UniProtKB/TrEMBL annotation, chain A:
Annotated TM spans: 20-43, 55-78, 189-211
Record flagged with keyword Ribonucleoprotein: no
Similarity remark: Belongs to the binding-protein-dependent transport system permease family. HisMQ subfamily.
Source species taxonomy: Bacteria, Bacillati, Bacillota, Negativicutes, Selenomonadales
Species this chain originates from: Propionispira arboris
Keywords of the record: Amino-acid transport, Cell membrane, Membrane, Transmembrane, Transmembrane helix, Transport
Stated name of the protein: Polar amino acid transport system permease protein
CDD domains named in the record: TM_PBP2 (cd06261)
UniProt domain ABC transmembrane type-1: residue ranges: 19-208
InterPro entries listed in its UniProt record: AA_ABC_transptr_permease_3TM, ArtM/GltK/GlnP/TcyL/YhdX-like, MetI-like, MetI-like_sf
GO annotation (BP), single: amino acid transport
TrEMBL record, chain B:
Primary localization class, coarse: membrane
CDD domains to which the protein is assigned, alphabetical: ABC_HisP_GlnQ
Organism of origin: Propionispira arboris
Residue ranges of every copy of the ABC transporter domain listed in the record: 2-235
Subcellular location: Cell membrane
Membrane disposition: Peripheral membrane protein
Descriptive protein name: Polar amino acid transport system ATP-binding protein
GO CC aspect terms: plasma membrane
Keywords associated with the record: Amino-acid transport, ATP-binding, Cell membrane, Membrane, Nucleotide-binding, Transport
Length: 221, 239
């Protein structure tokens, strides 16, 4: 077995570009996913049944279907309905954020429900509305508790973003495929791609561990 | 100040309040006593609608509790102190007190801060403004909770077993603050097991058992000459 280090070195710039794109999709999708997830998570426990039902349908649909199929729906099926071609970047970001939002919604819902009921009662008894109490009292506390599961979601999404390679979007995995098509260096390239993913996920998990330590202030009563 | 008529509350099948009628006057200090599970906390929590009555009528400061906007109005006028303090753990003591006056009363930060510092002095915790709740003892936390409720300048204060979660040596510091409030003429409704407090500070004592007011009278009467057998039995156990 020959491992061609020269091939790894020569492919590295292209792979790094791909990795950068992977980071971009992940970062944008996670940010959008957190926004979507925060609203959907709160909607899941709202007292308006219509909101609750809508959020439940969204979460069930996304969690009950593969991301790959969601990407196909976004890229191939949606244009059939709208008649507009969709840019692979937009399709990739949209599919990933909408997907992530559903998982984040469940994370936030659990985080919010883990906060002692007395906090909401204290807020309400002071004359604050439900949404004011959510905003100033409950969500800031829930945020700290959801840092670890959000970190996991971040890592999962980074890896899952490799799926957008199927619509020809040139992130890390797609770059790897393209280089292999030219050089036949399956071993070297897939190995390099794996190492690059590993570096990114390890960096994120370290960062999350740091955040967790930093925000680990006392919230005992 | 508070008028409650024919109040019923059930949690599913379990009937907790079975027809409560009571009126509380301005500046009156009413102490509610009774065995655990008798419904006394539920009664208190109905007054600011933390519990939704199954039936009955509650009017607080001439505002009937019958729609969302009235409920919020009443909550602005009625302060509540909980057994487990329920301070906001992610905020400093000062921020805990400032939050509602700024968000609900729309006070400027400076105005709210001046009030808050005066209240902290009143409860004897001026030096703890920048501390977080977790850094305080139970008694100190409960005094902050009282200051936080007072910051909304309520006309009525509700106390739900405010000393039950405290170590014995901290009970007095909280009771002292409550006595001070009573002397200043605050209308107060207090659910408590502190019979000494009831006797000393209460204008009227309600004995609640099995979802009903069994007996009510001035503390001297209820503690010295209770009429009802159930009251006698209860008092013989706690006094």
């Amino acid at each position: 077995m020959d491992f061609d280090f020269a091939l790894v070195v020569s492919s590295l710039p292209l792979l790094l570009e791909g990795a950068f794109v992977t980071i971009q999709i992940t970062a944008i999708s996670v940010s959008l996913g957190i926004c979507i997830g925060l609203f959907a998570g709160i909607a899941r426990i709202s007292h308006f049944w219509a909101l609750r039902a809508l959020a439940a349908v969204y979460v069930d649909f996304i969690r009950g279907t593969p991301l790959l199929v969601q990407i196909f729906l976004m890229y191939f099926a949606l244009p059939v309905i709208t008649g507009l071609r969709i840019d692979p970047f937009v399709a990739a970001i949209t599919a990933c954020s909408v997907n992530s939002g559903a998982y984040v919604a469940e994370i936030f819902r659990a985080g919010i429900q883990s906060i002692d009921e007395g906090q909401m009662e204290a807020g309400r008894s002071l004359g604050m509305s439900w949404s004011q109490t959510m905003r100033y009292v409950i969500v800031p506390q829930a945020f700290k508790r959801v840092i670890p599961p959000l970190g996991n979601e971040f890592i999962a999404l980074l890896k899952d973003s490799s799926l957008v390679s199927v619509i020809g979007f040139e992130e890390l995995t797609r770059r790897g495929q393209l280089i292999i098509a030219r050089t036949y260096g399956s071993l070297e390239i897939w190995f390099s791609v794996a190492v690059l993913y590993l570096i990114m996920t390890l960096t994120i998990s370290r960062f999350v561990a740091y955040l967790e330590r930093r925000y680990k202030t006392d919230d005992r009563h | 100040m508070i008028d409650i008529k024919n109040l019923y509350k059930a949690f599913g099948e379990i009937k907790v309040l079975k027809g409560i009628d009571v009126s509380i006057a301005e500046k009156e200090v009413v102490v509610i006593i009774g065995p655990s599970g008798s419904g006394k906390s539920t009664l208190l929590r109905c007054i600011n609608y933390l519990e939704e009555p199954t039936a009955g009528e509650i009017v607080v400061d001439k505002i009937p509790l019958n729609n969302e906007s009235n409920i919020n109005k009443v909550r602005e006028e009625v302060g509540m102190v909980f057994q487990r303090f329920n301070l906001f753990p992610h905020m400093t003591v000062l921020e805990n007190i400032l939050l509602a006056p700024m968000k609900v009363r729309k006070l400027s930060k400076d105005a709210a801060r001046a009030d808050a510092l005066a209240l902290l002095e009143k409860v004897g915790l001026s030096d703890k403004a920048q501390a977080y709740p977790a850094q305080l003892s139970g008694g100190q936390q409960q005094r902050v909770a009282i200051a936080r409720a007072l910051a909304m300048k309520p006309k009525i204060m509700l106390f739900d077993e405010p000393t039950s979660a405290l170590d014995p040596e901290m009970v007095n510091e909280v009771l002292e603050v409550m006595k001070k409030l009573a002397k200043e003429g605050m209308t107060m409704v207090v659910v408590t097991h502190e019979m000494g407090f009831a006797r000393e500070v209460g204008d009227r004592v309600l004995f609640v058992d099995d979802g009903k007011i069994v007996e009510q009278a001035a503390p001297a009467v209820i503690f010295e000459h209770p009429h009802e057998e159930r009251t006698k039995l209860f008092l013989s156990k706690v006094l």
